[in-house]
Amino acid sequence: MISGRLLLMFVAAAMAQNDLSVDCGGDDSVTVRWRPGLDSSQKLDPFRALLGNCPPSFTVSDDTLLFYVLLRDCGFLKQVTADRVTYSNMLIYDRRPELPFISQSVQCVYDSAVSTTTAFSAVEDENEGLATFSMELMNSDFSAPAPSMRFQLGSIIPIRATVESRSHRPLKIFMESCVAATDANISRAAQVHPIIANVGCLMESKSGNSSFLPRRHPAEIRLDLQAFTFALGQNIFLHCDLEAWDIQRVDRKACHYMQQQRRWELLDDPSQSYACSCCESTCFWRTDSTKGMSARKVLGPFMMEDESQSDTSLDTQSSTEHGLTEALLWLLVVSVAAALVTIMGVLAVSYYLCFWRGGRLGYRPSRDLLTKY
């Protein structure tokens, strides 16, 4: 139970106060009312909004959303300092394809004297040494790290996440949420894009060829993410909330959309794919969290670029190399010509001194030599 003096209700960047209200409750919950600020030609669609990886709880009016969530859910990042405990998250509204995302940071800050029974904390779990989470970019067959951090638009970005239990307890890992951002600190990111949301739904599989891959073992989850149009040519960071549970649990999910079948499929048991039906609406997922572990991992930077950018880069590089080659060739020609002129000058001077001038000064008639000797 969270109790104690509330220091700061929220931090909102570049938004009017009446567009956002945050109630950081004393019962480990937070209530957010948000008006994304759409123009008159746009109709509010709650399915386009997220708080971290959680969809809105209600639509309270034609232009206002309400989120009622727990601080241990939705991918809140917990930071502890000497005098404060801060919970941070991000509001996102997707206006694609016509307009960019609307995003806004949200924080609840408490006095560090506050005691909490929240067991589902990435910092606490990893500091206690119960498990180690990792995430990395891989090559196409997942046999080694990715050879390059640059990916062409439409190509596949292989991603692997793993968990290792230090108590040797068998665990199964899930990717609860992932957000692409243009900064390693998501609150400073100029652009953000949800990849996995709604507690394990791979949203990018709905619009592209992204998918989860069959598991090789429970402690690993693999994702083929198709490079898409987002922050092309810029550094990109993937912010993911990872979870690990006892392998016997069946109430967690990893879902991707099957384009040909036009339906969502559950990674671990396609026959139970009805568990993914909420990916099109709102997934409410409340279970006992004391047996689970979690961590937030940031992967990157990597870069997605289209072919024209790559061609332009190659052309520029080729032109530079060609210009450099021509410059070196002209430098060589000038150097050789200068060397030849120098050699010819030395030879001419030597001939003058040794054979012409020297010969003329040392010449005496033979009769003078006979008279002398």
Question: What are the key terms here?
Answer:
373 residues; alpha+beta; Immunoglobulin-like; 3 domains; 6-stranded mixed sheet; 5-stranded antiparallel sheet; 4 helices; 35% strand; elongated; ZP-C; ZP-C_dom; Zona pellucida sperm-binding protein 3-like; transmembrane helix; transmembrane
What would CATH call the class of the largest domain? Mainly Beta
Q: Provide the structure class.
A: alpha+beta
CATH topology title of the largest domain: Immunoglobulin-like
Helix content: 10-25%
Overall pLDDT metric: 78
CATH superfamily of the largest domain: Zona pellucida, ZP-C domain
Q: Report the β-strand fraction as a percent range.
A: 35-45%
The SSE string, one letter per element, is EEEEEEEEEHEEEEEEHEEEEEEHH
First-residue to last-residue Cα separation: 130 Å
Shape: elongated
Counted up, domains total 3
Enumerate how many helices there are, as a single number: 4
Label the CATH architecture of the largest domain.
Sandwich
User: Radius of gyration, rounded?
Assistant: 34 Å
Strand arrangement, largest sheet?
Answer: 11-21-18-13-14-15
Q: How would a textbook summarize the main sheet?
A: 6 strands, mixed
Low-pLDDT sequence parts: 1-17, 114-128
Please count the beta strands (DSSP E, at least 2 residues each). Answer: 21
Keywords: Disulfide bond, Membrane, Signal, Transmembrane, Transmembrane helix
Protein name: Zona pellucida sperm-binding protein 3-like
Signal peptide: 1-16
InterPro entries: ZP-C, ZP-C_dom, ZP_dom
